[in-house]
Amino acid sequence: MTTTSPGVRDFTKDQLVRMARLFAHEAGVARTIERSGAERKRHQLTHTPHLEVWVMTWPPGASTDWHDHGAADGAMVVVEGELIDVQWRGGSEHWLELRPGDDAAVAAGTAHSLTNVGDGYAVTIHAYAPGLTEMTPYTWENGRPVAIQPGD
């Protein structure tokens, strides 16, 4: 008798991107989430203890602010719209312009900020492994992101 669940437990960056692409190509997935209001919205498409997949809508100008995904690696694919992903790696900012069909990956513990820079709503598909159980917010101090500790 086994006490572990079958299936894939660990995902590489490329596998997470492929998973997000798989859901992005599902007919109608972009219509499964509301496009109204001034705040971004998200809807979980599937989850296991080792993987979560979300669809998100981004009104013009919507941003995540600086954060990380704790122990989870992440990847996303843009379905509609234009976004900028800014990641803090190696002591500097790395900017990536994203348009429909483009993808980006974020390593566990990497601070980043994602913003819709287009005139209309953006739609993205995100895959996280393991599941997204924590997110650390950051503030910008002395030219770099600094994690906000609980109680700060």
From TrEMBL:
It holds the Pfam family Cupin_2. The lineage of its organism: Bacteria, Bacillati, Actinomycetota, Actinomycetes, Micrococcales. InterPro entries: Cupin_2, RmlC-like_jellyroll, RmlC_Cupin_sf. This is Cupin domain-containing protein. Residues 54-125 form the Cupin type-2 domain. It comes from the Bacteria. Signal peptide: none annotated. It comes from Flexivirga caeni.
